[in-house]
Amino acid sequence: xLSGKNRSLRFGSNVxxxxxxxxxxxxxxxxxxxxxxxxxxxxIAWAGATPSNTPIWVxxxxxxxxxxxxxxxxxxxxxxTIVIQALLTGELDLIIAPSATLVSSRLAGADTIMVSxxxxxxxxxxxxxxxxxxxxxxxxxxxxVNRLGTTSDMTLRLALRRLGVDPEKxxxxxxxxxxxxxxxxxxxNITQFTLLGEPLVREAEKMGFRDLxxxxxxxxxxxxxxxxxxxxxxxERRPLVAKTVxxxxxxLHFIKTNKEETKALIAxxxxxxxxxxxxxxxxxxxxxxxxxxxxxxxxVKTLLDDxxxxxxxxxxxxxxxxxxxxxxxxxxxxxxxxxxxxx
Length: 343
Fold this sequence. Notes:
The protein has 343 residues and is of the alpha/beta class. The chain has two domains: 19-121 and 221-340, Periplasmic binding protein-like II (D-Maltodextrin-Binding Protein, domain 2); 125-218, 3-Layer(aba) Sandwich (D-Maltodextrin-Binding Protein, domain 2), CATH 3.40.190.10. 43% of the residues lie in helices and 18% in strands. The protein contains 15 helices and ten strands. It has helices at 19-28, 54-61, 64-67, 80-88, 99-107, 151-162, 179-187, 200-206, 231-257, 259-270, 275-288, 298-307, 312-316, 326-333, 336-340, and strands at 40-47, 70-77, 94-97, 112-121, 125-128, 142-145, 172-175, 193-196, 210-214, 221-230. Helix 2 (54-61) crosses helix 10 (259-270). It is globular. The model is unreliable at 3-37 (pLDDT under 50).
């Protein structure tokens, strides 16, 4: 059974009897928010200590789940492959996951569906030993990722193919752990290249390694960090999913309009205090986080096209069937997002 710290507010049994308090609270609540006393239990999990998870850190630690009527239990799990298993067994209501997790599970027959996106493109970097100066020199070398089949693995393989290197035939890719462990493996020459994001790219440069390429410059549409649930959950608990999408939309707005608080939150969750690294991380991720978090099918099609030669089901799959755009469409049509950004 999964465990996690529940940080949601619980009201005492005397709340219902305090009519004056309730009336005052209702009057202070905006038309788009949900009264705090109407909270609904929800379990959501994320994996990977990278700034791509800033939206869920903000939604949780800055109170946007609570504001939207969600008594959220937010759980950190070590890998996206484990997160999807917990969703499919019913231990979780929603998860933060990439296109790869969504696609692999749905092609296998699961009813997984993406309802919003937090990061719709690659922005990690391929970092190598200092004497490797070109992508071509990665051929015959060993690369490190978190675990095989996870986001870092799929990201690195897809990027290498886009850059003209066959990851299966021309490189060897091994599991070396999360970002700090990947950097350690590079230091010990267990691997010669790896995938890192800011602020660890700066740390790697200080250690003499080379920032070989910023994958973000390739402009590859791919949902690195998205909100995924099950069609069953949408049928049975649609209001809960709508509240979650709204909370993430508010979290994205917070990130874009509260730079210093966001950097402090990244520092806290990554346990780093390097000012330049945090500035670089904020700048890179903030530019990629969307204002309107549509789970566009193009970010799924990228992966389907990539795996189609090796996965027959992917060749005939419709990218639109992997996403549900209705939750973000409803938010945009209501004027909620326009009001957030005061347009």
